Amino acid sequence: MLANAHSYFLSRRIAFSVLFASEPAVYRSSGYREMANRTRFLDHDGGWKESLYCGGMVAELTRKRWQERDLDLRGPTV
Predict the structure, then answer these.
(1) pLDDT digits over 35-53, tens only?
(2) Could you give the strand order of the β-sheet that contains 32-34, starting from the edge strand earlier in sequence?
């Protein structure tokens, strides 16, 4: 499933895949690694929140390197 998602992202020229995992070890074999980005998101109560989630992970799908800076999701969580 992740391979299909990564192929789709690459077809759309998206260089990274980000996910929030409860068990990070599951995703390492698919190229993910832990990230240390503070994340800004629109919570279910309608308020903007910031969090440093310990299970945040990123996969670099191209040669472009991920930068450890604030991540703004710019929309609601799902």
Answers:
(1) 988 888 888 898 998 988 7
(2) 16-20, 56-60, 32-34
Pick the closest to residue 15 from 73, 61, 66 (CA basis). 61
What type of residue is 26?
V
pLDDT, tens digit, 9 for 90 and up, residues 59-78:
999 999 999 888 888 866 55
> Residue 25 and residue 51: Cα distance in Å, rounded?
21
Q: Where are the beta strands (DSSP E) in the chain?
A: 16-20, 32-34, 39-42, 48-51, 56-60, 71-76
Tokens 């391979």 found at: 3
**Cα angle 43-44-45, degrees, rounded to a multiple of 5:** 90
Query: Would you kindly state where each structural domain of the chain is located, as residue ranges?
Result: 2-64
For the full predicted model, state whether its pTM sits above 0.85.
no
